[in-house]
Amino acid sequence: MSHGATELPYCRNCHYTLATPRPHYCGHCGQETDLHPPSVREMVTEYLGHYVALDGPLLRTLWALIALPGRLTNAYFHGARRRYVLPLRVYLSASFVFFVGWALLPQDPGPAIADVPAAAASSASSAAPGQPRRLRVRPDMTPAQVAAAAEALAGGASAADAARAHSRIGDCELARPEDCSRGLRWLVGVVDKAQSMTLQQWKTRAGALAPYAMLAMQPIFAALLLLAFAGSGRRYAEHFVFSLHSHSLWFLALLLAMATGVDGPLALAVFAHGLVAMRRVYGLRWWGAAWRALLLSTLYFNLLACVALAMAAMIAATA
Fold first, then answer.
1. What residues contact residue 277 under an 8 Å CB cut-off, 6+ apart?
2. How far apart are CA 77 and CA 233, in angstroms?
3. Is the pLDDT of residue 301 over 70?
4. Tens digit of pLDDT for each residue in 47-77?
5. Please, are residues 64 and 74 in contact by the beta-carbon 8 Å criterion?
6. What is the crossing angle of helices 199-228 and 286-317, to 10°?
7. Helix H segments across 133-181?
8. pTM, rounded to two decimals
């Protein structure tokens, strides 16, 4: 052991007697035999290595993922497991980078909502009677406060009356629970909690749940691939690998879109990338890849919408 420590003749981990000459690794447990206090660089690398694939051929993997559609999946199927980072590690690295970037990117607080025709109101900028007025929205305002201010501005109702209207579903209102069934009382309560949360609170809670939700979507997307490519001879696990690689690219593309604001061209590029990847992995013609990609996109985005609604309900219910 370096740094002035005595080199013992046995492994410090399992106490197995080391061979002579002294090996670099214990032949019994595999731990290094030459140990030293870790440097700051080693500690940071070890910590990040749990989330991002810093070791291994990372640059080669990123190049294949972005510039060579389908290459990573085919390489994995053909047994090239050491040449590239493994699929799950690629996905975890891309998702980690995305969610960290999403948390760090500046968010537009929305300085104003749409123009609202109304008479003079204290929360609106000055304008001539009958002219549209712009309601200023502060970043710390909750959705309920924004909606109440907008309704008060448009209809002349008080902000309190407008806020109470948003705690109602049909004839069910929190102020009169006797008129509500148990299910409606729960639903109105969830809506009321949701409207009491600020944008930052929503972002924090969604950021905590989203990584787990997206990881849970991987087997679901793989099942959709299994249905779309029935008869291709691919097993479910192979579709799962394609799902991991596809989502890794989507995470990186979405982060780039959020950072640059270039949504449309990037969405088309990602769709084209998926078409080429499907053709190479599943051996399809252009038409076969196109209709399957459209079908998968429609089904998957509907599922994502359902998951987003479920997440919103969970966040509001536990607020």
1. 69, 70, 73, 242, 245, 246
2. 13
3. yes
4. 556 555 555 588 889 999 999 999 999 999 9
5. no
6. 140
7. 143-155, 159-165
8. 0.67
